[in-house]
# Entry
Amino acid sequence: MSMKRQKLVSDLLVNGALIILCIIWTLPTFGLLVSSFRPEDDVSTSGWWTVFSFTREREGPRFTLNNYREVLLGKDMSYTNAEGEVVQASGDDLSTAFLNSLTVTVPATVIPILIAAFAAYGFAWMSFPGRRVFFVGVVALLVVPLQIALIPILRDYKTLDLTGTFLAIWLAHTGFGLPLATYLLYNYISGLPRDILESAFIDGASHFTTFTRLILPLSMPALASFAIFQFLWVWNDLLVALVFIGSKPEVAVLTQRLQEMVGSRGQDWHLLTAGAFITMILPLVVFFSLQRYFVRGLLAGSVKG
Amino acid sequence: MKRWNLVLSLLVIVAMALTACGGGGGDGEPSGDGGEAEEEPKVVDIFGAFVDEDARRFEASMEPFEERTGIDVEYEGSGDFETLILVRVEGDDPPDLAAFPQPGLLSDFVEKDQVIDLTEWFDDGYLEGQYEQHWLDMATMNGIMSGVWYRANVKSLVWYPVPEFSEAGYEIPETWDEMIALSDQMVADGNTPWCIGIESSGATGWVATDWMEDIMLRTQPAEKYDAWVEGELKFDSPEVKNAAKIMGEIWFNEDYVLGGTPSILTTPFGDAPTPMFDDPPSCYMHRQASFIPAFFPEDVTLGEDVDYFYLPPIKPDELPKPVLGAGDLFAAFADRPEVREVAKYLTTGESTKAWLQSGGFVSPHKDTPLDWYPTEVDRGYAKILSEASVFRFDGSDLMPGAVGAGSFWTGMVDYVNAEGENLDEVMQTIDGSWPEE
# Structure
C-alpha cells in the first residue's frame, strides 16, 4: 500500500515537474504565436496575454493575418519618383530569399557531412603515418572561433574572385562545420564493431566498398544527427552569409530578409513575430523527417549489417 | 534495400552539388575579367545602413541619374552596416561608396588612410556652393574632406498632440523657462507633461545623450561643445554637470514624467511617444528626432493629430537657436570616373528629390528648394535647419566608440537609475573610459 502510494507520489512529482518545465519552455513561443496574429498597434501597446482578458478590452481582442501577408507577399511601400508621382509598390516577397536559403543550406550541409564521413573513416580504420597528429589538428580546430577567420578568408576570396557567389559560402560553411563533423563521426565510426569490418576485408572488400556499403548505412544515426545540427546552424546563420555573399536582394538569405523587414530604425519589429514562424517551418520539417531515420538507424542495430 | 536508396540519393545530391559548384565558379569568372565589363561598362556599388522602404526610396532617387548617364548604381543595405563595413574594408572588398550614419565610425577609416580625400575630386569652391560651412566642417577629418552629406536629421524637436494641446489652452513655449512653466501648468491641470523612454537594447541610453547634447548646446557656446566632443572639456566639469542637472530637473521630477524614472529606463524609445495618442493623452510632450513619426500609430496624421516645436533655447539672448542633428555621409573607397560622377550627383539637391518628396527626409544641400518638401511638417525641419544659429552633430556619434557608443550611454543609464544622486561618480567613470591617445 505504502509502496504504491510512494510510487504515485513520485510519479506525480516527476510528471508535475515535467509539465511545469514544458509550460515555461513553450510559453514564450506561444506568446510569439499569439502576437503574430495581432495588429501592430496592439502589439506595441499591450502584452499578448491581454487577448485572454475580455474585461480590459471592451470590444474584445482583435486578430489579423496582416503580419503574415506582409511577410510573405512583401510590405506595402510608397515612394515618390522623380516626376513627383507617388508610387505604391510591394516590397520583395520571401520566395527569392527562401530559395536562396535553400541553395545555401543544402550543399552547405551535404558537403561537410560527406567529407567528414570519409575523413572519420580514414582516421578510424586506416593506418597511415601522422594519423594521430592530423586528428589532433582537426580536434584543435574545434576551439577556433569562426569570427577570426572572416577577414582573411574574405581576402582570399577576393583574390580568387569568389565573393558574392554561393560557392564562397558553401566552402565557408563546409570549413567551419568540418572539425565538429569529423570529430562526431569519428567517435561513432570508430565505435563500430571491428568484426564486421574485418569480415568485409577478408571477403576482399576495398576501403571504398566497405565505406559505402557498411560504414555509411551503419552510421546513419550519427549522419542524421549531424545533418540536423549543420542544417539548423546554416539556416539560422546571418553573419557568414552577410560577409561572404552580401545582402543584395538577389542573393540575400531568409535571415537577412527578416532583419531588413524591421526597417532602418526597427519600427516594424512586430513583423518579426510572423517571420519567425514562417522561417521555422523548414527546420521543423527537416528535424522531424531526419528524426525518423535517426530512430530507425538506432533500431536497425549493427549486427544485421 | 531502403538504406541503399538513401545512400544513392545522398550521392546524387552530392553529385548535383558538385556540378553546381562548377557552375558557380564558372559564373564568377567572366564578370571578373572582361565579358561584362565591356557590355555594361559602369557599375557603382553603394553600401549603407538604410534598408527596406528607405532603400527603395534611395534607389528611386538614383533613377534620374542612371537614365541620364547610363551608370548603374547598385545599392546594398544592411542593418549590420557598422560591423560589415569594417570587415569588407579590412578584407580588401570595400564598396565604391559607403553611406556612414556616424562620422565617428568613418573617422576610423580616415585615420587608416582608407578613404579618398574628396577635395581632389571637386574644384575649389564647388562644395562651398553646395553645403553650408558647418556641414563641410563636420565632414573634414584629419585635414581631408572625408565624404559628402546626403541626408540630415533634426534632433531638437518636441512632439505634442495638437488638438488636445490647444484645447487645454497650452501655448508653444519660446524659451526653456516657458517650457518648464508649461510643464508646471500641465501638472496643475492634473496632466503629465513628458513621455520619456530610453530603452534600446544594446544601445540603451542614447536618448539621454541626445538630451545632454541639446542642453549643452543651449548652455554653452559651440566652442565648448566641440571641446567636449573632442575630449578636451571633461565630463566631470561644471559645464557638463550643469547640463546633466538641467536634464535631471525634468527627468527626475515624478510629476513631470509619465511613470517616473522606472518607466524611463524600461520604455523602448519607439514606444515612448505612444501614450501621447491615448484619449485623453497620457502625456503632452516628447522630445525626439525627426525620424520618430515612423513609430507613431498608423491612424495618426502628421501635422493634424501631432506636430512638433523647436526645443526652446535656455539662453535666448546669447544662444538663440542652436540645433542638434545628425546625417548620412557618403565616403569613397574607389577612384573611378563613374564613382566621381555618382559622388558629384550626391552633392546636389536633385539626388534627394524622390526620397525627399516621399516625406520624412531633410536635405542638407543648399540647392534644394523648400517647395519640394511634401508637407508643412517636412518643410518645418528644413526651416529649423536653415535658421539655426549653430548646428552641431550628435556628439555621441563623434566621440570615440568606447565613449559615444559605450560609457556615455551606460553612464546615463546609471545616472537615471540613481535619480541623479551619483552625478560626480558617473562623470568620472565616463572620463576614465576615454581612450588614451
Summary: The longest helix of chain A spans residues 2-36. The longest strand of chain A covers residues 76-80.
